[in-house]
Amino acid sequence: MPVDPLSISALCVTLIGATGRVSVLLDGFVRDVRDARTELDAVARELLSLRTVLSLVSDDCSVETTSMFPETLCQQIEGIVRNCGDVMDQMEKALKKHDGGRVQRAMWWGVTGKEDMRKLRGSLIAHNSALGIALDLMALTLSTAIKADTTEIRNDAAQIKNDTTDIKHDTAQILAEIARLQAQLPREKANALNQGSGDYSGSDTMLERYLNDMTSYAETVGVGTAEEDSVAAEGPSVAAEGPSVGAGSASIEVEADYTMAETLEGLEFCGIPHGSLWHQRSKEGLNNTLF
């Protein structure tokens, strides 16, 4: 079933609300268990960072440019957002479950709570990083689409090559970040297994799959820009032949649709005001050429 970018925006808004609820629960827990302040402050900072990323993803998915996002990318982003929601839900349930007073909270924190929150925070960091990568891919997709549109209306090969180089550089950075995050997840899994807990979140397993998919998508974008770069390197194509000059003749053929009025109007459009020195000189030059 196709994923509507607007539905991703709605999911992000819902998840932003969840971060607010968890932040309130964290504040209450720290008041009762002061030993948890350092660890839970780190969780609170990660939640704040997540809110920012979610807001940006929501904004990008609710504008007119959403039609430029391919279905594959939308599915990956939706999956990451939903998985992140699962992590938030686990965190919220854990804090609410041990809301029976200072003694109960302190006991839970000392026995398993601290380690549970450490794992959830690690998963939250991974999903936050994945959403940041998805945000970069969205920007890269828009840049590629805009470059393709502008290439159709101009023949500046040097500028096209510069644009392509920037996109290829961004793609390389995104692929490097995905690789870094992919390398981090197996370490988290190994740590969980070594500690005998076997508690490696299913959402993290899904995240690995989405990262693989994003790698494939980013590589596809990179290949596309490389092909366009080779075309641009061949030089601009000649869109139309220039005015012909007859052998031994002083007459110059001028296209009928290239009139003085249109040219002067173009000067004003480019910011050269009517009556200015440049405007007058251009008019005199056209008089000499046309007449």
Automatic annotation (TrEMBL):
<feature type="region of interest" description="Disordered">
    <location>
        <begin position="226"/>
        <end position="245"/>
    </location>
</feature>
<feature type="domain" description="Azaphilone pigments biosynthesis cluster protein L N-terminal">
    <location>
        <begin position="3"/>
        <end position="187"/>
    </location>
</feature>
<dbReference type="InterPro" id="IPR031348">
    <property type="entry name" value="PigL_N"/>
</dbReference>
<dbReference type="Pfam" id="PF17111">
    <property type="entry name" value="PigL_N"/>
</dbReference>
<protein>
    <recommendedName>
        <fullName>Azaphilone pigments biosynthesis cluster protein L N-terminal domain-containing protein</fullName>
    </recommendedName>
</protein>
